[in-house]
Amino acid sequence: MVTPAQNASRPTDPTRRRVLGAAGALAAGGALSACSGFSTPDSGGSGSGSGDGALTMITWASDVESAAFAALADGFEAETGTAVDLQVVPYSEVLTAVDTGLRTDSPPDLFRVSYTDVAAYRRQGVLADLADADTLEPAFLLAFWAAVTDERGTFGVPHHTDTSMVLLNTAAVASAGLGPLPTTLDDAWTWEQFADALARIQPSRADTYAFAANWQNAGAYRWLNFVDQAGGRLLSEDLRSVVTDDPGALKALTFTRDLFRRQLTPANASARGQAASDLFLNQTVATAFAGDFLLSEIEGGGFEYSATFLPRDVNASADLGGNALVAVEASPNRDRALEFLTYCAQAEQMAAFCTAASVLPTRGDIDASSLRYPVRPDLMELYVQQAQAIREPLVQQVVVPSFSAINAQLRDRLDEVFLGGDDDATALRRITDGVAAVLQTS
What we know:
Layout lengths: L18 E3 L33 E5 L3 H18 L3 E5 L5 H10 L6 E5 H9 L9 H4 L5 H6 L1 E2 L2 E2 L2 E4 L3 E6 H5 L16 H10 L8 E4 L11 H6 L17 H15 L14 H6 L3 E7 L3 H4 L6 E4 L14 E5 L6 H11 L2 H11 L19 H10 L5 H7 L4 H17 L4 H18 L1
Parallel strand pairs: 1-3, 2-3, 2-4, 9-10
Antiparallel strand pairs: 4-12, 5-6, 7-12, 8-10, 8-11
């Protein structure tokens, strides 16, 4: 996927940061549902911009991401004279904060959104179309540009991506005799080799397991990696219906259920369970799937770890991570907000953000392998390779307008089938029936 050409220099450090905490308790409203709908205020409404004429952007962010966003805001203000106030809220509250603003005619000017949620906002007319899309498009990798684009236009910029790899606790796996880990994508473990490696890891405490996958809650869609690796699909090629009784999906379900049945992964690592990265950090599991953006946090865990590629079957396949930046059509500051998106989408700014936040660029003219990542650059080199396995057939399925609701169905149904007693074919039908119900009502 990432086939870049040049390295971009980093901008100067920010001299002033305008990072605001979330103001008070947010009004109850629930996260966006792709089928629920909400009223969209007329363009030119009061907006939620700060009183000094600054743009307002709602985002979630780690400490390093907050600093990276602040650098973007400072650079934009220095170049244009327009300030950007960042309202940083917890990830679980971002969509609630945005939706509340939309319902109360006080939308933010900009917000950060996952690729899996872009289409739902796009379909309901919330997002502003990029006027300079034709100029920007050639610089971006196709899969990511497609995630923010439909037949009506392009609604946001694909700001960065991330993906998952297998992290391994060095001490926990040393006694397993696994030998050298695969260091190229072509040499990634097969499913059979991966399962064998997990089975050879001996728990060091009663509460230690071999593995946890990162399919918890909003990450439920990452289970589809296995489906795509097995050559299967959840949605039909026209993306309008569910593929029932798909052999690849059944193979993936059997393989992933066996992780629980063989007690290689703990029950609380199910789709409604504890985050895989937390289980890895507290050493409940010896290995875990984890995104590159988590490396800064995992570095503080106090133990040595390494990484290798996701296992493969028919295909090598990796999850589409990362986020877009979007402007709100109803914002009275719409045009200036779009200017900020264009600023963030430039190669120099994107390279600086990705370097600071340990994520990967979505522009094809940025050589991710030459960025000077401050945290585990040795592992970031592997993540760059892993991102080459983000496959367009899978991307297309996870950016449909109803995917927010589909993802919720995957979370609930996977939680049932991972821990339930149905035979595998019945368990797969439980999943596909739930997704079919979403498509019928969307």
